[in-house]
Design brief:
This protein is of the alpha+beta class. The protein has 2 domains: 184 residues, Rossmann fold (3-Layer(aba) Sandwich), CATH 3.40.50.10330; 175 residues, Tumour Suppressor Smad4, CATH 2.60.200.40. It is built from 11 helices and 20 strands. The strands form 4 sheets. Strands 7, 8, 9, 10, 11, 14, 15, 16, 17, 18 and 19 form an 11-stranded antiparallel β-sheet that branches. Strands 1, 2, 3, 4 and 5 form a 5-stranded parallel β-sheet that branches. The protein has a two-stranded antiparallel sheet with strand order 6-20. Helix 3 runs parallel beside helix 8, helix 6 runs parallel beside helix 7 and helix 9 crosses helix 10. The radius of gyration is 22 Å and the shape is globular. It starts with a helix and ends with a strand.
């Protein structure tokens, strides 16, 4: 009950901002807030206190300084989802109740938009703003559903991902105020790609990531973190990084991995074969995973890390977790649109925190950037 109250307070301030936002001011704006009440940004008292203060400041700013010419309203999907007093629906708020709930809600919003296409020529179509408030899991579910948005609706949607989880690598900003700037200041719709993993087996995949897709040690850390979630106190991801540094290659023996990278025209950029502990492929450079680990510290979006003796792993671990590994001989960084991977052993992959086991027969695999198709907000 306490967590739902926090989410309701959160949504009340966001609704104030949505009512006044300059975003698509000439069109009717329809907003939906998809929030995970169990996310750390709501349940961890210190974080919630800081978020509450930021929200009040931004809502007050919106109320006093902004006016939009077009109407703004909560979605019909939010109104129908409220089976209680109607208060949540009026705020455009839908708390998530189960796994994949966020994805199902986005699909319902797409259906709502299809049903509300203008009947008269020249009539402005509603613009649907989806705001997610949770961690990387909530973001991944919503983005996966939004990836299937029909092309003719892409100009009528945008998603804003607020950093309200314990892991916020998939949010639009790591700090709440920076993310809210996209709502209260003039912004435009831009489109971002995904990373797609395709296996040699037609019935397995494809798999999508919207931040970083990786195979190897990091995927093992993700798998164990998810498996032990709720059983270990504190930041268990960092704990499993320490454990994996010591024991990963005993659980998953590291074999030679053949890598060939290609540019957007399909021309080969680089090829090499090394024993790699992990291979990370991001939608761009300057990206983090594991709650802030800067595995892609510059403009390059691909990083492979070589296997090395234990003492060297321990010596260099801090450089990799702090993003200071770009110039190390053991790190292979490059910018690519597609990577072909050949491997002879079972290995784990992870897509924005969701792991999957890859078997020998799944190889070769390809990791590739898709066309830009996810509508996100960028400041003007």
């Amino acid at each position: 009950m306490k967590d739902i109250q926090a989410v309701q307070e959160f949504a009340a301030d966001l609704a104030e901002m949505c009512t006044h936002t300059p975003l698509m001011a000439e069109r009717p704006l329809v907003w939906t807030i998809i929030a995970n009440p169990m996310a750390g940004g709501f349940t961890i008292a210190k974080r919630w206190k800081r978020h509450r203060e930021i929200l009040r400041i931004y809502a007050d700013q919106a109320r006093k300084t902004m006016r939009r010419s077009g109407p703004a309203m909560p979605s019909q999907t939010a109104l129908e989802a409220d089976q209680g007093t109607g208060r949540l629906g009026a705020l455009g708020l839908i708390p998530t109740l189960r796994p994949n709930h966020a994805g199902d809600l986005v699909r319902r919003l797409i259906d709502e938009a299809l049903a509300n296409r203008p009947e008269k020529t020249g009539e402005a179509a509603p613009f649907y703003l989806i705001i997610t408030a949770g961690g990387d899991g909530t973001s991944l579910e919503a983005l996966t559903a939004l990836y299937e948005l029909p092309p003719h609706l892409r100009s009528s949607f945008a998603i804003l991902r607020l950093p309200m989880g314990t892991g916020n690598d998939g949010a639009d900003a790591r700090d709440l105020d920076k993310a809210l700037d996209l709502l209260v200041h003039p912004s435009r719709v831009d489109f971002m790609p995904a990373v797609e993993l395709r296996t040699a087996k037609k019935d397995k995949g494809p798999f999508l990531a919207f931040n970083i897709l990786s195979i190897g040690l990091d995927a093992f850390v993700t798998y164990m973190t998810n498996k032990m979630k709720g059983h270990l106190p504190g930041d268990s991801y960092k704990l499993w990084v320490d454990i994996a540094t010591l024991f990963y290659d005993r659980i998953y023996p590291v074999a030679p991995m053949y890598i060939e990278a290609f540019d957007e025209r399909g021309s080969s950029l680089s090829r090499f074969e090394e024993k790699l502990l992990l291979l990370a492929f991001g939608i761009s450079g300057h990206r983090t995973y594991g709650a802030g680990i800067s595995i892609l510290p510059d403009d390059r979006n691909v990083c492979g890390v070589e296997e090395m003796p234990l003492l060297k792993k321990l010596k260099l671990k801090k450089l990799f977790t702090s993003g200071k590994h770009a110039n190390l001989a053991e790190a292979h960084l490059l910018k690519a649109a597609k990577v072909l991977v050949r491997y002879s052993e079972p290995i784990l992959a992870q897509m924005d925190g969701e792991p999957v086991q890859l078997e020998r027969e799944d190889f070769p695999i390809t990791l590739a950037l898709t066309e830009p198709r996810i509508p996100v907000l960028k400041l003007l």
